[in-house]
Design a protein that fits this description.
It contains five helices and six strands. It has about 120 residues and is of the alpha+beta class.
Length: about 120
């Protein structure tokens, strides 16, 4: 495995991934990819005021630093430089700005949970 790609740093609501811990444990680069820059103020407010364990989850997001624009998407990263991230996205984004492994995972998940994709990947 060359890298772990995540479509966003949180899953199923606000289950925030500790990207640095994943990188340290598996010793491979981790790249968080988003189509648009997130509204960090809204995320912070939701985590701190509405989500159990929100302070710890917000600290994980802060620890990653701001998302960086690269190759038409936004990324946060651990164990990979910005130039390496750009090269990886360039090689994996065949039919859109989103890398194919993330597009495929999104399509499969949509098919499994809803019977079809919502055509956002």
């Amino acid at each position: 495995m060359q890298a772990i790609l995540l479509q966003g740093v949180a899953f199923a609501g606000f289950n925030v991934v500790d990207v640095h811990a994943v990188h340290a444990t598996l010793r491979i680069p981790v790249l968080v990819v988003a189509r648009r820059a997130p509204n960090l103020a809204a995320i912070r407010a939701a985590l701190l005021h509405k989500v159990p364990g929100g302070r710890r989850k917000w600290a994980l997001i802060e620890q990653l630093g701001p998302m960086e624009a690269v190759q038409g998407v936004y990324v946060q990263r651990a164990g990979i430089t910005l130039n390496q991230a750009a090269d990886l996205i360039r090689r994996l984004a065949l039919h859109s700005t989103l890398p194919e492994p993330l597009r495929t995972a999104h399509l499969i998940a949509g098919g499994v949970t809803q019977g079809e994709s919502r055509h956002r990947a």
